[in-house]
User: Which sequence fits this backbone?
């Protein structure tokens, strides 16, 4: 008979062994920690990484870009190309060069309520997307589609009004369920607030991925359970809970206490926190650092009369030491950005204008612009108005808040006063940025795909307003005729060498005009339990959750 003393000893050793070798039995649930709650679950309204991340668990795009930075089919059977005959050149009705691209939806693909995914959903999505009052983040891609031919319920041909280098990429045409949301679109102006994605987000018919959302509490968490109608590879977990913890210090504490199993790389600890975490707890977790196309910057409100002066914008750049920020805060793992194009991208131009830390140059430009220093060291114009700006970002993000304080101090040295006012991410992105309510500066990140033409953020037609129901992502209000032409022509140039030269012009205009202040390129830090395998960072805008069915639990 085993003594109680020996039983306790055996139990203790078993627990210790389990702690170092992984779960003692099959793990059926996964709890993920992220720092932001989506402002909406609608895939085409607003642009927010938190939404893309959670939708990756429950939705699938027609095409996407994988971890090898290649465009691949997800909801389609085969990627159409000019070479395989899936795409053919044609003339548009007005005689211009167009293209016809034919896709076949996966035969087994159905919505979470069992309704087949058909061409009806494609056509409905197009109708919503091209409507100027629908409130989608950008209508441009939809407007380019002249017509859609229904070949059969699963096959369709897009007739597009131009031939672009990425003609077969449909990653931004996120399908909407016509059988659910068409009635909600009866009044297009009201659709943004009436869509079932926000009024009935637990409706399984909104989803077609490995999971469906079964619970959502604003600002707190979302629960996803296996989709019984999913036709693809069976995912490892019965349930995935995504917990939102906006304060990154609290996020780390929840991981250590067991409140969450992993921290998302897309929306989790910043590099400085992850490096410190690795030193303390690296033996217990797998920690991955993935550099990528995540551009941390400050959007400038160009409606602000003071910021309309390019000398002030350039002085703001010369007055900050971004190299010191990169080295001292991030150990050099987050390099200084000169434009929104990352050196990892083949279209990056090395000759782009660069702004080294140069207080004397900042002083000269501000004096020229009429902002001279007072006796207290701060600047004012001839009317006595102080040079003062409000800087905003997402509340609870410790690294961003630290960067804000550094910028505030460095700009103060140049005589520029900065008032910091931060907001929860769902408010900051859902209202303040989207509706251009920030008075001067909004700090956040854009995440893009390789060679992603930034039309929606830089073209003058993409400025959100009440008139277009806040469609578009040119939050700065930037208007530049030469930039508009480049944005339109780069897509049409099929010759890579000529396209690279056009990209160089684009980057030079951006760096000279400075509609935004480039800060640095972020690296994602994935904090994963030892027993979780198959999470493959992409380094671009499409999140790891799009391949959640490949995540496994180590034996």
Assistant:
């Amino acid at each position: 008979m085993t003594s109680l003393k020996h039983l306790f000893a055996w139990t203790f050793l078993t627990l210790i062994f389990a702690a170092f070798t992984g779960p003692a039995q099959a793990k059926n649930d996964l709890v993920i920690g992220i720092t932001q709650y989506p402002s909406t679950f609608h895939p085409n309204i607003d642009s927010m990484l938190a939404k893309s991340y959670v939708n990756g668990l429950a939705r699938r795009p027609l095409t996407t870009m994988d971890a090898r930075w290649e465009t691949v089919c997800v909801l389609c059977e085969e990627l159409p190309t000019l070479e395989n005959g899936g795409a053919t050149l044609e003339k548009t009705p007005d005689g211009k060069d167009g293209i016809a691209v034919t896709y076949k939806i996966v035969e087994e693909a159905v919505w979470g309520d069992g309704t087949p995914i058909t061409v009806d959903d494609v056509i409905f999505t197009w109708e919503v997307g091209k409507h100027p009052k629908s409130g989608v983040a950008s209508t441009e891609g939809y407007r380019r589609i002249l017509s859609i031919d229904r070949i059969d319920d699963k096959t369709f041909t897009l007739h597009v009004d131009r031939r672009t280098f990425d003609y077969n990429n449909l990653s931004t045409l996120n399908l909407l369920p016509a059988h659910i949301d068409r009635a909600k679109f009866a009044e297009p102006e009201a659709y943004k607030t009436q869509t079932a994605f926000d009024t009935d987000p637990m409706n399984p018919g909104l989803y077609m991925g490995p999971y469906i959302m079964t619970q959502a509490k604003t600002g707190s968490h979302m629960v996803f359970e296996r989709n019984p109608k999913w036709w693809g590879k069976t995912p490892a977990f019965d349930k995935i809970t995504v917990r939102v913890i906006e304060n990154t210090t609290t996020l780390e504490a929840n991981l250590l206490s067991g409140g969450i199993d992993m921290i998302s790389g897309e929306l989790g600890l910043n590099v400085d926190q992850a490096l410190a975490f690795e030193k303390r707890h690296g033996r217990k977790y797998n920690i991955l650092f993935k550099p990528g196309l995540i551009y941390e910057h400050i959007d400038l409100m160009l409606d602000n009369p003071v910021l309309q002066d390019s000398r002030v914008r350039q002085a703001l750049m010369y007055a900050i030491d971004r190299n010191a920020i990169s080295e001292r805060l991030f150990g050099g793992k987050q390099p200084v950005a000169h434009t929104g194009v990352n050196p990892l991208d083949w279209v990056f131009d090395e000759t782009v204008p660069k702004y080294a830390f140069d207080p004397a140059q900042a002083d000269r430009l501000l004096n020229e612009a009429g902002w001279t220093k007072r006796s207290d060291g701060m600047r004012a114009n001839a009317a006595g108005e102080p040079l003062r700006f409000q800087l905003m970002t997402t509340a609870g993000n410790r690294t961003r808040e630290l960067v804000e304080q550094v910028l505030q101090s460095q700009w103060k040295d140049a005589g520029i006063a900065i008032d910091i006012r931060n907001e929860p991410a769902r408010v900051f992105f859902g209202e303040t940025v989207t509706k251009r309510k920030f008075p001067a500066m909004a700090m956040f990140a854009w995440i893009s795909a390789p060679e992603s033409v930034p039309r929606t953020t830089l073209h003058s037609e993409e400025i959100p307003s009440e008139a277009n129901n806040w469609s578009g992502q040119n939050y700065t209000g930037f208007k530049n005729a030469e930039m508009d032409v480049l944005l339109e022509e780069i897509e049409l140039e099929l010759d890579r060498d000529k396209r690279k030269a056009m990209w160089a012009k684009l980057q030079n205009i951006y760096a000279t005009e400075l509609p935004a202040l480039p800060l640095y390129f972020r690296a994602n830090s994935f904090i994963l339990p030892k027993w979780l395998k198959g999470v493959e960072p992409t380094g671009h805008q499409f999140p790891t959750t799009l391949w959640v069915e490949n995540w496994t639990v180590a034996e």
